[in-house]
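pipeline/complex-builder :: batch 7 item 3
reading input block
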Amino acid sequence: MARWEPDARGRLMLAALALYTERGYEQTTVADIAQRAGVTERTFFRHFADKREVLFDGSGMLQDTVVAAIAAYKEAPPLDVVGAAMERAAVAMQDRRDFARQRAAIIAATPSLHERELLKLATLGTAAAAALRDRGVPPVAAALAAELGVAVFKVAFEQWITCQLDFPACIRATLDELSALHSPSPAPRP
Amino acid sequence: MARWEPDARGRLMLAALALYTERGYEQTTVADIAQRAGVTERTFFRHFADKREVLFDGSGMLQDTVVAAIAAYKEAPPLDVVGAAMERAAVAMQDRRDFARQRAAIIAATPSLHERELLKLATLGTAAAAALRDRGVPPVAAALAAELGVAVFKVAFEQWITCQLDFPACIRATLDELSALHSPSPAPRP
DNA sequence: GTCTATAGGGCGATAGAC
DNA sequence: GTCTATCGCCCTATAGAC
């Protein structure tokens, strides 16, 4: 028998998700989470910088996916590149809709977690802008296109967890809405 | 002589701005701020919900300006409405560029403050979306247009504090960049 | 793993304005 | 009398230091 149960990190994440749902984020102490995971409080802080971070473990991977997709995409206008990258990220998240929904419910109920989520998305935007610049997109256009990409992601994510469509389809629908916003007249005469 | 000096709130804001600049946000305690303002620590927390909030006193007014501008603007496509509202907000901030720059420097140096700034902008976006819906814009288009408005505001703000242009001009320039992103070919044959 | 400083909330007391 | 701003002290949990 091992000296410690394996995967303390995974148990801490599950315990936090469950407790935040059961009794709310603020009513849950780090000691509670550690106890349910069968480790000490100190161990929690070895794995996660703070009490919020335990819910954001996948955000680094999401960012890597987006950045890689931007770098790899064929020659195209900046907006098409970020659109395709966001769809790619959506594909990677598709099979975790129940988790995403539970997590989103906790975050929506907790301003402090909402803040952290926004920081992660902003960091993703900054990384996306850098990846666009690496493709030769001028700085301001890159910053703007990256922000639009994140905006599309946010709106599409909201759709995804509240309706039946799958995530990539929500991204495509939101990208269509974005185009429509820029040509208010349904069909400019050809 | 009054029992207390008036405007404890204003003194707390000034003291916080000065101390955060002098020695950094994390190296400043609430006790330090309270002491410089001549009140107790407890009084600080009666005026501001937390140590960050003291830097975001104006954000409610900014939001009111944007929402009012959206409600009052003439019949026009959603993107034009938010664009005009952001320009209106920029006009209102124009005369506080030095303050904005000092504040931005503190925020840029402090992830925790960056988080709070993003939350305020997200809240502004939500309010702008609601104001667009009140004008009859469909929900998804409203959410997307509001996000675009905030994106333009962020990019333009960055321009404003790093270059010589005035804020409304930065907004207009960024709105032009936004249009350009959607029509990559310089001039589609008429 | 233990120790400590700080954030931030709860509660009652005080003193001025009205 | 009421209302409101401030104070002071006690408390817990976070998060960093040792």
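note: Residues 2-4, 29-31, 41-42, 45, 49-51 of chain B lie near DNA strand C (CB under 10 Å from a C1').
queue -> next item
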